[in-house]
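Ticket #4471: structure export looks truncated?
Reporter: QA, pipeline team
Priority: medium

Steps to reproduce: submit the single chain below to the structure queue and open the exported record.
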Amino acid sequence: MKKIVNVATPAVCAVALVLSVVAFNKTNAATAPAPIVASAPVAAAGQPVDLTYAAEKALPSVVYIKSVQNSKIQTVEYSDPFEEFFSNPFGGFFGQGQGQGNGGRRQRQVQTPKRAAAGSGVIISADGYIVTNNHVVDGADELTVSLNEGSKEFSARVIGADKTTDLALIKIDGKNLPAIQIANSDDVKVGEWVLAVGNPLGLNNTVTAGIISAKARTLGANGVESFIQTDAAINQGNSGGALVNTRGELVGINAMLASPTGSNIGYGFAIPTAIMNKVVDDLKQYGNVQRAMIGIQGGSVKDYIDNLKDQDKEVKDFGTMEGIYIGKVVEDGAAEAAGLKEGDVITTVNGQKVKTMGELQGMLAKKRPGDKVTITYLRDKKNHNATLTLKNEQGNTKVVKNADTDVLGADFRPVTDAQKKQLEINYGLEVVKVNGGKMKEAGVPKGFIILRVNDEPMKTFDDLQNAVKEANNSKDQMLVIRGIFPTGKKGGFVVYLQNE
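Actual output as written to the record:
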């Protein structure tokens, strides 16, 4: 479920998780809106809530985003066992021609159609910064932002994106834009009225109302989750739109819905502003998110005990049914350094109770590597305290910088048809120049053809860029390169991408 694409995801308890972005097709554009806030009228206890104030304040700040993927030439594999047999009916006894003997698989080039998708976004600053979902802008060649009722249209560029939280920060060149006022999502309460504002199903500037149904929900769709759950109607196209309180203040970014049909017959889920603010700050300052890790694997005590019961296994008495059960302590992590062990139960972080993994993730998502947290944990039913220094994914407290192919210090180009024929390969990237950098350090020579990096095929330059970025964020920060020399000899290199 980690990889959710455009419209649908695998089922969770027979309920589909759906990213609320209009599927890639030829859709008509929609628009979006503007501004800020002041003090809203507050209804007396038990009296109806007037939501018109919130709608008027929030609508101008929510924009329509059109994402376009241009037509591309791609190489695809297809299988034809009959072609395999008839092209060589002797099954290889007398040798096979080039491209045969591969289980009937062949490759051909196809041209993908130009595709468009629609989503929403929220203006967070008057100079044009807009927050949306990563899945709204992921893979886009062109981004167009329309303001409220189509009053203005801008081209947008991506400042940064984070798949783990499904957030993205984009920028348009505008002035005096209607920025929304941002509230602290930690202050919202279950049962509180909220509005979902966005552009669902091509219906621009749509407002729906509901209540906050739950907080700190985890669904297994993203790496970091602490969703606000709401029964306000959210549909495809609402992705990246605003969830606002009765004062018209932003409390969350709408991201997905849970529904048995893929449309609104269920609940919507929004990313809290407490997480959004941290992600936005990191993307502006560092270009990527500085993620703080506690260094454990586990889940809520209740879920762990329920799982044991379902398997008819003996259930241990932890002395509590609340908290985070530690199933594994990660080597060289913050928890190991503080002396935590498998079987311990974390009950508080910085004096605040934690009952679920969603609550713990929500707390840590606001921290950076190097930050310290004080925890209380149970071991053999006895309380213990510890102070943890949070670490990054690489096991240290350094700033994780964005890496791109510039760090390799080399130039690349896709192999030619002549090279494919001569070397009997279907794809690859040739190293046409080695200037210095990590490639030179690893001894990669000019002319070497890269076929795979970290077991991923290198068909395009984008493939190499993605491999470098993923490796840079890994603990090893290493590229394992396999390929072929111009002579036809196969070879490989290991390239290290350590930060300074």
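Status: closed, not a bug. The export was complete when the record was re-opened. Leaving a note from the reviewer for reference: The longest strand covers residues 206-217.
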